[in-house]
Specification:
This protein has a single domain (5-189, 245-253), classed as Rossmann fold. Helix 2 (24-41) packs parallel to helix 3 (57-65). Helices cover 41% and strands 28% of the residues. The strands form two sheets. It has a seven-stranded mixed beta sheet, with helices on both faces. Strands 7-9-8 form a three-stranded antiparallel beta sheet. The radius of gyration is 18 Å and the shape is globular. The protein is of the alpha/beta class and 254 residues long.
């Protein structure tokens, strides 16, 4: 299913206050991505573009561990800009923020040494098209580093019949990247979270903005049916599971 960008913006905007406290998987992905940047690209970058900065999980990790002179950040949610600006400027880096859909924003040519993004690419309509445009905005030899999610992501929710995104397998995503980049590193993992009830799963998804796919509400009957099937299929010892499928890519512009 293709995401409704207006709905995604609305749901993520509502989740900003509680996002950092709930998004443990995404925080770990940000930490892991910066570690891979250090391993494969070093720590010195003149100018970086961050796609989908959100509340600043990746931004703060980058300015803490990398030597960055300037960060240009983007997000669908305009309110993200002030949240990230303070942390970046406190670290001594220049900062500018450009709200909107990255797939529609103009990108300056050969402007960045690093393009980074955490848990965003699965929301794109046309990742191949964006990867092509990012190759043009990267300087020769620049680094592309991003995380996204694979097909097992939130598999329990999809299995119980709720609408889900089309998550690309790692080989398919790698093939898109390899058109314009040389992949230096790729990996994937599965992380299983446990909750006391299916309703807590839904609350977790709401607080991370990951429910930005369906406009229709839940009737009591639909909610009861969801909870019953979810607990029956994915419950054990009084808990239910929720699977995340992170994927990591670091690549150099050819």
């Amino acid at each position: 299913m293709s995401p409704d960008k207006e709905l995604v913006r609305d749901r993520f905007g509502r989740s900003l206050a509680g996002y950092d406290g709930e998004a443990a998987v995404q925080r770990g992905m940000a930490v892991g991505l910066v570690e891979e940047i250090l391993s494969h690209g070093g720590d010195g970058f003149d100018s970086a573009l961050e796609i989908g900065c959100g509340t600043g999980l990746l931004s703060r990790e980058m300015v803490r561990r990398l030597r960055l002179r300037k960060i240009v950040a983007n997000d669908l949610v305009a309110e993200c800009g002030p949240r990230v600006e303070g942390a970046v400027q406190l670290a001594g880096a220049a900062f500018s923020f450009h709200p909107g859909d990255i797939e529609r924003l103009d990108l300056p040519p050969a402007a960045f040494d690093l393009v980074a993004s955490n848990a965003v690419f699965h929301w794109l309509d046309d990742p191949a098209g964006l990867l092509e445009r990012l190759a043009a905005t990267l300087r020769a030899g620049g680094l592309l580093a991003f995380t996204t999610f694979g097909p097992d992501n939130l598999r329990e929710v999809a299995a119980v019949g709720r609408t889900g995104l089309r998550y690309r397998p790692i080989d398919e995503m790698a093939a898109l990247v390899e058109r314009r980049y040389r992949i230096l590193h790729r990996r994937e993992s599965r992380e299983v979270l446990r909750f006391s009830s299916p309703r807590q799963v839904l609350e977790h998804l709401r607080r991370t903005g990951a429910n930005g796919l369906e406009r229709t509400g839940w009737t009591r009957g639909v909610l009861r049916a969801f909870e019953g099937e979810y607990r029956e299929r994915f419950g054990k010892s009084g808990e239910v599971t929720l699977t995340y499928h992170p994927m990591f890519f670091v690549a150099r512009h050819k």
